[in-house]
Design brief:
Structural class: mainly beta
CATH topology of the largest domain: Immunoglobulin-like
Helix content: under 10%
Radius of gyration: 36 Å
CATH superfamily of the largest domain: Immunoglobulins
Distance between the termini: 89 Å
CATH class of the largest domain: Mainly Beta
Number of helices: 2
Shape: extended
CATH architecture of the largest domain: Sandwich
Strand content: 25-35%
């Protein structure tokens, strides 16, 4: 029966459940979705956008836009790569000296996955990067992977490669300190307090916005500001305009993703419960092994056994009841 079911089952070279975020090359070695030689060309549109020039060694943002996502994708999972070229090997951004500060899902990966709703055919993905320290010309590229009808054939498509220059920053350029670590995730119903660490900055202005919303200005006191709590899971974006003796510097839009609190289990409690369950099972096994079957009564099988007869003679102490009182 198992062999028959196997023969009649549909084989798929895609992975309908996705493979999860990670640091991966565009080829993926067949582990993400499928080997590139087995992919079909996606009908979706993909483009990558970044400033034409940026400061070497400082932060910048890169955005990949995907539109026209096919409606026949059953899993609705879209995987997006941020790469330096289409070589298929050693094409991750870190090979050129880029450092991923945050990815669209709040991690530090060049490959991310998201599940699009049935009513959505477009999505924007933003990475915050620390650019290489060495000035010069660099390139970046986006790539997507997704399934189709039946999720049997994986689809793939690359964006155009963009080229831009990294310029040495002036010594007095207002900037965020290298020690500043921006948060990327938080829990809902909690305000977020952020303290900026800066260099050569005399005045700071901070703005924030909800995804697709209007820009709001937040008060900054001694480099510290508070972002409002999120009621529902989602993201809030913020950026800082830094002023000083050098040219003003505006940071990229940093994304702060709000998530539901996760269920946590104490490891020590699990250990104690496991030990208690083990002792209980050992006790049950020991008890069962010590139980012996009851020996059959042999007197019933004795042919010489005679059931005693009841003596019909009345005892002296027997009380005789009569009807005439």
């Amino acid at each position: 029966m198992l062999i028959i079911l196997t023969l009649f089952s549909q084989f798929s070279i895609a992975q309908p459940g996705g493979n999860g975020d990670g640091l991966r090359s565009g080829q993926c070695g067949g582990s993400c979705h499928a080997d590139a030689s087995q992919n079909a060309t996606s009908s979706a549109e993909i483009s990558i956008n970044s400033p034409s020039s940026t400061w070497a060694g400082l932060l910048t943002s890169v955005t990949i836009d995907v539109s026209g996502f096919p409606v026949d994708s059953e899993s609705r999972i879209l995987g997006v790569f941020l790469l330096i070229d289409n070589s298929g090997a050693q094409d991750r951004v870190m090979y050129d000296g880029w450092e991923i500060v945050s990815d669209p899902n709040g991690g530090v990966n060049n490959y991310v996955e998201t599940r699009l709703s049935s009513s959505t055919d477009a999505k924007q993905f933003t990475w915050i990067l620390k650019s290489p320290d060495e000035p010069g010309a660099y390139s970046l590229m986006g790539s997507i992977q997704h399934g189709g009808e039946g999720n049997q054939v994986p689809f793939h498509k690359n964006s155009e490669i963009i080229y831009f220059s990294l310029i040495s920053p002036p010594d007095n350029l207002p900037r965020l300190s290298e020690n500043f670590d921006t948060p990327t995730t938080r829990l809902i119903n909690e305000e977020t307090t952020i303290t900026l660490l800066t260099e050569d900055v005399t005045e700071t202005k901070v703005e924030w916005r909800l995804e697709g919303g209007e820009i709001q200005v937040v008060e900054v006191v001694n480099g510290t500001f508070i972002l409002p709590a999120a009621i529902n899971p989602g993201l809030i974006e913020w950026r800082a305009t830094l002023q000083g003796e050098g040219p003003n510097q505006t940071t990229p839009w940093f994304q702060l993703i709000a998530n539901e609190p996760t269920f946590s289990v104490s490891s020590s409690s699990m250990y104690f419960q496991g030990i208690a369950l083990l002792i209980f099972c050992i006790g049950i096994v020991t008890r069962v092994q010590n139980l012996k079957p009851r020996e059959k009564e042999t007197w019933i099988q004795d042919p010489n056994f005679v059931i005693p007869q009841v003596n019909e003679e009345k005892s002296e102490d027997t009380l005789e009841l009569r009807g005439d009182f």
